[in-house]
Amino acid sequence: MESPANTRDINRKREDYLEWPDYFMATAFLAAKRSKDPCSQVSACIVNEDNVIVGIGYNGMPKKCSDDEFPWFKGSKSDLDNKYLYVCHAELNAILNKNSVDVRNCTMFVGLFPCNECAKVIIQSGVKQIIYMSDKHGMKQSTIASKRMLDAAGIKYKQFAPKNRKIIIDFDEINWNDQNQLPTSPVMDNTAKLEKMSLSNGLRTRLDLEHSFNGHKPQES
Ligand SMILES: O=c1ccn([C@H]2C[C@H](O)[C@@H](COP(=O)(O)O)O2)c(=O)[nH]1
């Protein structure tokens, strides 16, 4: 759990930082917020062996298939009027969105246990481990088939055990230590002033500098 801002010690390494697994699952859950699916917002975050995120995706209509025009129903009599024939699954999107050469030996963090179609793509892509949050469709044949294929392919899967049940993102938090900044030193040496001169715009800073050299001007280059 994060400590409230006003109880933090600004001189000690934070102990309440997000650990990798919570960070990756939270990243997946954040991406899921982009999904337009009214029932299940699913997403996947692919991480390589160096803990670098190499792909993120969520369930959504394919590119150029407007999510205002294609259906989000699931109970319509005609399959053509339901979402299932159209939606790209989160896992597929995450793999297609990869920003690395491939996703071999990567771990996939997913909200929902991958269906059989996603399992096929996961196996072919070389992902070696799946960490999932929910197995709510565990009794469905598509999930049973998925597990059968993943087992055969030697891909490990395990349910996520979060350290934090809730992670709150507060856009105002960046300003929490506004009042706790160390005061700037009253004695600024000439080196610092030279750096300042190169960083900020000309005349005023230059005049400061000339003043601090007690009248001995630095040579013009
Ligand atoms: O492995 C999966 C399985 C499903 N999805 C997507 C496809 C749909 O948009 C929803 C499932 O909708 P329900 O209303 O819960 O049946 O989840 C996925 O991305 N990956």
UniProtKB/TrEMBL annotation:
Task: Give the Enzyme Commission number.
Answer: 3.5.4.12
Task: List each copy of the CMP/dCMP-type deaminase domain by range.
Answer: 19-157
Name the cofactor(s).
Answer: Zn(2+)
Molecular function GO labels: dCMP deaminase activity; zinc ion binding
Q: Gene3D superfamilies in the record, alphabetically?
A: Cytidine Deaminase, domain 2
* Tagged with keyword Metal-binding: yes
Enumerate the UniProt keywords alphabetically. Answer: Hydrolase, Metal-binding, Nucleotide biosynthesis, Zinc
Catalyzed chemical reaction(s): dCMP + H2O + H(+) = dUMP + NH4(+)
InterPro entries given for it?
Answer: APOBEC/CMP_deaminase_Zn-bd, CMP_dCMP_dom, Cytidine_deaminase-like, dCMP_deaminase-rel, Deoxycytidylate_deaminase_dom
Q: Which GO terms describe its biological process?
A: nucleotide biosynthetic process
CC annotations in GO: cytoplasm
Give the matching PANTHER family.
DEOXYCYTIDYLATE DEAMINASE (PTHR11086:SF18), DEOXYCYTIDYLATE DEAMINASE-RELATED (PTHR11086)
Q: What does this protein do?
A: Supplies the nucleotide substrate for thymidylate synthetase.
Q: Which family does it belong to?
A: Belongs to the cytidine and deoxycytidylate deaminase family.
Kindly provide the name given to this protein in its UniProt entry.
Answer: Probable deoxycytidylate deaminase
Origin species: Dendroctonus ponderosae (Mountain pine beetle)
Starting at the broadest rank, the lineage of the source organism is: Eukaryota, Metazoa, Ecdysozoa, Arthropoda, Hexapoda
